[in-house]
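Run log, item B.
One chain of 677 residues. Sequence copied directly from the ordering sheet:
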Amino acid sequence: SLVGGLMASLSKLASNPLGAATTTSVLVLAIYLALGRDKKERTPENPLFAKAAAREKRVAVDGVFLKRFSRLFKILFPTLFCAETGYAAMVAASMIARTFCDLWQISNGTSIERAIIARKPELFGKYISRFVMMMLPIALINNLLKYGLWRMSLGFRKRLTNYLYKEYLTGYTYYKVGNLDNRISNADQLLTQDVERFCTSVSDLYSNVSKPLLDIAIYARQLTRAVGPQGPTFMLCYLVVSGALLTRLRRPLGRFTVTEQQLEGHFRFVNSRLITHSEEIAFYNGKDREKMVVESTFQALVRHLSRAMNFRFSVGIVDTIIAKYLATVVGYYVVSRPFLDKNNTRHDNSTHGEIMEDYYRSGRMLLGMATAVGRLVLSGRELNRLAGFTARVTELITVLKDLNNGRYTRTMVTGKPEDNAVPLVPNSGKLITADHVVHFDKVPLVTPNCDVLVKELSFKIESGMNLLVSGPNGCGKSSLFRILGELWPMFGGTLTKPAQQHLFYIPQKPYLALGTLRDQVIYPDTKEQCYAKGTTDKDLLGLLSQVHLQYLVDREGGWDAISDWADVLSGGEKQRVAMARLFYHKPQFAILDECTSAVSVDVEGFMYTHSRTLGITLVTVSHRKTLWQYHEHILQFDGRGGYEFREMTEEEKQSAISMQEAHSAPSHPSMSKKGKK
């Protein structure tokens, strides 16, 4: 009986399409509401994103958006006569041609239908032949329009990417954007994914706005002749009212877009971090903790996307009704007036066929205009997304400009300031460029977070005065080098130093470039720059021989071999390649930060001696006492804000020599006897 009752109900619904549609809609909505509930208790908020949520800004299509977009527009179209202007003109011409093709198809299609109804084969063949002849030009115009949009989007991306990377790679901005300034957390995503989406959105919006506007203009002109000016005027009034209403409803879309890109960037960062530190995580067996971090990060993204989808679903219903169905209703009403109005004398003397032809032609043009109105109204949705991308890209430009001008913004995490403390002002120090000298004169060692490590640091070394820097962790050794390398701002005092090309820094884990074996030795020079200096591959082989790496050329397959050098070379080989790189560049001063920790004592001693032979003054950070003999001065931090700068005593040097001899001697008597045998 239950099955019979269900079948009877279905039969009643089938006989009543309106009731069936209503029931189905209610059922689908109920299922959606049941599945779409946001169960927040199952996915607790990740504190990682509290900062991003706190910085969330209002994004909408308003005066601020227009100001931001005009700033980017000048980058996309730098001059009136540029390639992008040409492509924009080509797209405009293609859209005009396509609209006239649409009008021709309406007229020709109506003629074909009239020939079929009138049962006239000769007319049918005539108009079908015309349509066949026009297929190639119409297809050409349609694809020329798509090609123009693709080329325009690519041109936008090329110009904007070049502009951003010019700012990003000016000086040390690429370092400062992630280490000094914390307004942007994922610069890589902004420079790649967000720029690409912004450019695609601009080109698509150009088509989605220009084509409907053009259609409305042309269709309105044609319809004014056919049904009078009242019809097009009524449609345009509907466009204004519906557009204003939907623009108001869609305002949150821009904010959703900005937050979505932020969360996507965080999720990608967590995954890349897992890959980068996979070995350390494996040793700690931290897979469960990392799984929790990845899942909570992804759940935060899913929650936001769910909220965004729910909002788009709700607004989409209104969009579809207003921009599609109501626009069609308005179109039917307008086109029906001349035919249903008894007082209209337009078709008093027309035959039935002529009335049918006029109705089909006018109706199709008016429905085409209604479709254009709907597309124009719906383009507001894309405009809100564009507002989100525009806010993201302009924020990146603002940050890059600020950093290039010496300004940065950072959320400070400091304790209570000391009484009578002097306010710290970034970039308030004086920088003097001079060869063969490094002179700190009352320069405070201050982190970007305004933590004072040393209130005033003063010392001076000249070429030939090798300096050893020592002290506990966190005392200011790395801060000293970052200020010397102009990575961190000065908060006072005077620093005299050579130009950057005369300073060379070698960390404990050397950087290995993408490229050939030759590139590892000559980095950051290119092959052409290397040869222009008069350095040959034979000279480079000599440099590798000095660090006992001459076998690499044969082992790896020559100087032009390309590998993942970070995986191919061992820790000691990486450090010796870095020393060969130092010998190649021969700077005035070299900063060696534990850069020989994986090298044997005898090879280490030769590299330090050879550096002195080349005239390179060394500033070394190392815990190895054996290196003291290669330095004349020592800068020792106590970790409490104090320091001592003095000459190395002969006793300290002799102690280092004795220690090196002890390290070089056999560690067991039996080994010595075997050696003698």
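Observations after the first pass:
- The first strand starts at residue 430 and ends at 433.
- The first helix runs from residue 2 to 15.
Flagged for discussion on Thursday.
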